[in-house]
Amino acid sequence: TQVSTYYGQGAYQPRLSTFCAESSLDIINIGFVNVFPDVGKGGWPETNFGNQCDGSVYVNDGVTTGLLANCHQIVEDIPICQDAGKKVFLSLGGAGPASGQVITSDDSAIAFADFLWGAFGPVDSAWTSQGLPRPFDDVVFDGFDFDIEWGTDIGTYTSPRYASLANQLHSLYETYRSNNPGSKQFYLSAAPQCAIPDAHLANAIKNAPFDYIWVQFYNDQNCAAANYVEKLGGFNFDDWVNVVLAGSNPDAKLFIGLPAEESEANAGFYIDYTDVVPMVDEYMTKYPSTFGGIMLWEATGSLNNTSPNGNTYADNIKEVLVN
Ligand SMILES: CNC(=O)NC(=N)Nc1ccccc1
User: Are 187 and 133 in contact (CB under 8 A)?
Assistant: First the structure.
C-alpha cells in the first residue's frame, strides 16, 4: 500500500527534492494546472506551483498566457524523484480559481488532453517542431491527476467533459505504448470529495479507467475520516468501494485522503496518525484488493508536522500502512 501526496501549493514550501528524499512518499501529485484552455489566456491552460517558478509565462500568437515557463527547480527535481522510484503526476484543478475549472465541449476536452500530452508527456518532435511549449522541458510525467473541485455542473453529475479528457489521455497512453514497446506505464488518478456522487468526477470515474481514486475524506462533516475516529458514523469508504467496483476500472486502487497537518484542512478534520491505525486495519482487511493506501494534503504540511520520533506525518502514515 502506498502514500500519495500533493506538492506545489505548500506555504513557503522547500524545493521538491526535499520530498524525493522522503522514502515514505510513493506518488507525488504536482499541483496545479489551475485554469483550463477554454478560459485560459491565449487559449492555453494556466499553471500555478506556488513559490516554485519565476513568474515568466509563454506568449502564444502574440497573446500573453498564464502558462508558467520557468520552474527550474521542479524541472531539476522531478527526475530525482522518479529515479528514487516515485511516480510523479501533474494535477489538474485544485483549490481555485473556481472560474478556471471549465471545459465547454467534448472537443475541447480532447484538445486539452492532446495539449497536456504534448506539453508534459513524452517529448515529440511533432509538438516541439511547431514551437509548442514544454514547460518542464524533457521531464515526462507518469500521469495526470484530476483534482476537480469547481464547475457549473453541480447537481447534474453528468458532465461528460472530464470523462472525455481522461479517456483521451488514456487513448494517448495506449497509442504511445504500442508504438514504443517497453516504455513506462502512464496513469490516471482522481481526487473526489467524499460526498457520493461527487459533483464533478462521478461521471468520469464511471466512464473512464482511473488507476487511483484518492477521496478527500476531509472538509465535509457528513463523510469525513474524523467521523470514524469519533465514532459519529458517516465515514463512507465502503460506499466508495462500490463506486470503484461499478466504475470503468474496477481494479482501481482506493485511497483514504487525509490532511497532513492541522492547518491543512478546515477545523476538526485533522486526525492524529495514531488514530489512523484502526481505520487502516479495518479497511485494508475488508478490502485487500481495493484498498490502496493513504493520500495526504499535502507534502509541506506533513514536513511541518514532524513528531518527536523525528518522523514526518507521511513517515508515520507509511509505518501505519506497512506495519
Ligand atoms: C486533493 N485536493 C485537496 O485536498 N484540495 C484541498 N485541500 N483544497 C483546500 C480546501 C480548503 C482549504 C485548503 C485547501
Answer: no
